[in-house]
Amino acid sequence: MNSYEYLLSDINNIKGIGTKTSKLFKKKNINTIFDLLWSLPRDTIDRTNLVKINELQIGKIQTITINVRKYNFPRIRNLPNRVLCDDDTGKLECVFFNSYEGYIKKILPLGSLVTISGKINYYKNKYQITNPTHISSDINSIKKIFTSYSLTEGLTEKKYNRIIDEVLKNIPDLDEWLSDEILKKFNYISWKKSLLELHNPKNIKKKGDFLSRLIFDEILSTFLINSKVQKNIKKIKKKNKKFGNKEFIKIKKKIDFDLTKDQLNALDQINNDLKSNQKMFRLLQGDVGSGKTIVSLISSINVISSGFQVCFMAPTEILARQHYNLARKLFDKNVNIKLLTGKTDYKDRKKILVDLNNNKTNLLIGTHSLFQEKIKYNNLGLIIIDEQHKFGVKQRKKLSDKGGNNCDVLVMSATPIPRTMIMTVFGDMDISIIRTKPKNRKEIKTYSKLDSKIEEIIKFIKKQISEKNQVFWVCPLIEESKKIDHQSSVKRYESLKKIFKDKVGILHGALNKDEKNKILLNFLHKKIDILVSTTVIEVGIDFPNANIIIIENANKFGLSQLHQLRGRVGRGDKESYCILMFKSNLSENAKKRITILKKTTDGFVISEEDMKIRGYGDLLGFKQSGLQSFRLADPVLNEDLFILAEKELKKIEKEDQKLSKYKTLLKLYDRADILNDLA
Ligand code: ADP
Ligand code: MG
Fold it and tell me: Residues whose CB is under 5 A from ligand 2 (ion)?
């Protein structure tokens, strides 16, 4: 067995673990010995304090050596078994609930001298220990500091400690993977030693070189795995796309604005990728409203003009339709564009698929389901995925494979990611960023209002609607339960309906897709003026006429979410407003959030701040999305280590193309089984 293979082997391999115990561990998601090592001690229990019975302190964990004197096993069910013990200073009773007599007789033989440890209580003039877990004739096996781990029913502290001790004893010496220069920063402490320190009861919640080293290992391995995925994709040779800037010039004539510098930059980077014979795997990142769509459409027409097909995936049907209409408007009539959604009827659908296969269709636009379906392209040259920040490395890798070798990939995300997170979340991709928004954007005026001031808000809305403006009204999820979630929005909807009659619509989770679409279209076509909704309004749809967003219970939202919501308005050239409603006086955190929102509209600044307030896990649902999560590293607290790892990665990429030195590290830390996928 390779030294690291022991660590990656099933916990069954630990001496003293049988199927029953291993099942308990597996229930806790501890499958391998390595997993077990990362289930960290929480606290310590000091059982070194050896006293006499007359010195016992009630409520404390104490250790005593006693004589076993007398059994008291009642014949009545539900009454506990008792064992009377003493020393030369007093008496103590051990009380056992749900224990067999045979077991008690075995661990506490009459007349023997045993050491026992447990929490002391006092009942009917007697000291007691209830269900003691630590009893032994060997005082040294008890009189020590125990480490407490997160236990589960059937897994006792004693057993867990024994298992962990066994594993710690057997950690192999691994060849060092860190460079000397890095190792020096952590005082030359090895991986093995670091891990031992991590489990040392003395070090619980303590920081030190051992912790920094392990955190660094974790970050570096993530970066290296991402980099390996990226290299694998880059190795793929493709037919390069040949095009000039003829199409671009035609489109420029059709739009009534100039592209921003960032848009032009992104376009340049994409064009270079398309024209090269390396496969493109690029993320286009830009805040809501920064103008990613036009960049992606220009890229599409370039690819089409060079003789390839393009597939454009949007997250929702409405958005797909919006992109479709825009493409129809911008592209020449001879470009064959098709929209494929759940609504497309069978006959049309069949024709679309045949045309695609014959290369008659140049551009297929649809929802993300385009990816799952058995659609055969003739000559696919580019896949564009809009608003998919929740794809993990592994899923993206699959996507890239699926398109075939000649197919470039462009992923667009409206989620600004803090700097320290980029390498973690998108380390496998090249990145283009649109940072500045188009100049014509007006600042969105942001206010906070107490619920009790709702009359003022209504008055304000009335005036706005009379000027032909439209309003988003957002009620957050109050509870996890969908029912309650509806209640708050339905209530609001009904009260608004009394005032604004049939000019109010409501959108919530219980509606089906068609109902939702109908309401959104009604809003888009200005048949309703106010749209009440529970969850986040469909990502990315352009409602240029909506200029007011009201967010109830604003303290329920994180900073980034508030920013995303606010980004629904302010897309046209009208003055726009965001009103944050609060139930009662603002908490310190809420005040902080409002101050930041009022101060800046830069999504990157906001996401950095959000990460500082909430921790990275909560940032726009990374935790739920199953993206890379760390066992130890925290992008806020360990920013310096992230930066250090980024520098080290660059160095390694230059010197050690094969990453041979890091093989063990990568094998050990590859939680998503990505490396196996690369083979
Ligand atoms: P997002 O990046 O959120 O996808 P969109 O592509 O939907 O943003 O663009 C939002 C709006 O901004 C659209 O109405 C689009 O026409 C407009 N827009 C895009 N680029 C510019 C620009 N350079 N100047 C002015 N308006 C622009
Ligand atoms: Mg968009």
Answer: 540
Regarding the beta carbon of 541 and ligand 1, being less than 6 Å apart is answered no
The span from the CA of 563 to the CA of 582, in Å, is: 16
pLDDT at 212 over 90: yes
Report long-range pairs for 194-199 (Cβ below 8 Å, ≥24 apart): 195/37, 195/168, 195/171, 196/168, 196/171, 198/40, 199/37, 199/40, 199/41, 199/147, 199/164, 199/168
Q: Does ligand 1 lie within 6 Å of residue 572's CB atom?
A: no
Q: How far apart are CA 649 and CA 351, in angstroms?
A: 49
Please give the share of the chain, as a percent, with pLDDT higher than 70.
Answer: 94
Ligand 1 midpoint to CA 290 (Å): 6
**Ligand 1 centre distance from Cα of residue 288 (Å):** 9
- For residue 155, is pLDDT > 60? yes
Ligand nearest to the CA of residue 316, numbered in listed order: 2
pLDDT in tens, 431-477: 999 988 888 777 889 998 888 899 999 999 999 999 999 999 998 76
| Beta strand residue intervals within 370-503, DSSP E | 380-386, 408-413, 430-434, 444-450, 470-474
| CB contact set of 427 (below 8 Å; sequence gap of 6+) | 222, 223, 226, 227, 230, 393
Ligand 2 mean position, distance from CA 290 (Å): 8
438 lines ligand 1 (CB under 6 A): yes
635 within ligand 1 shell (Cβ under 6 A): no
Exposed, middle or buried, 448 (CB in 10 Å: 0-12/13-18/19+)?
A: buried
Which DSSP category does 443 fall into?
P
Q: How does strand 546-551 pair with strand 576-582? A: parallel
Q: Is the CB of 542 under 6 A from ligand 1?
A: yes
308-328 in b/e form (b: 16+ CB < 10 A) is bbbbbbbbbbbbbbbbbebbe
Residue nearest atom 4 in ligand 1 by C-alpha distance: 292
Three-class SS of residue 278? Answer: strand
Please give the helix or strand (H or E) that residue 589 lies within, else none: helix 588-599
pTM over 0.85: no
User: Which among 408, 402, 162 has a CA at the least distance from the CA of 279?
Assistant: 408
SS3 category, 130: strand
Supply the mean pLDDT for the chain.
Answer: 87
**Above 60 in pLDDT, residue 619?**
no
Q: Is 286 in the pocket of ligand 1 (CB under 6 A)?
A: yes
Contact predicate 380/251, CB 8 Å? no
Whether 433 is in the pocket of ligand 1, judged by its Cβ within 6 Å, is no
Could you tell me if the CB of 505 is within 6 A of ligand 1? no
| Cα separation values, 396 from 237, 317, 363, Å | 18, 22, 21
Please give the pLDDT value at position 370. 74
Q: Which residue has the tokens 């036009």?
A: 294
- Coil, strand, or helix at residue 427? coil
Q: Whose CA is closest to atom 16 on ligand 1?
A: 291
Contacts of 334 (CB under 8 A, 6+ apart): none
> Given a cut of 90, is residue 258 above it in pLDDT?
yes
Nearest CA to ligand 1 atom 13: 291
Ligand 1 and 257: CB distance under 6 A: yes
Which atom of ligand 1 lies at the shortest distance from residue 295's CA?
A: 6
Ligand 2 center to 387 CA (angstroms): 7
Residue 384 Cβ contacting ligand 1 at under 6 Å:
no
C-alpha span between 629 and 617 (Å, rounded):
8
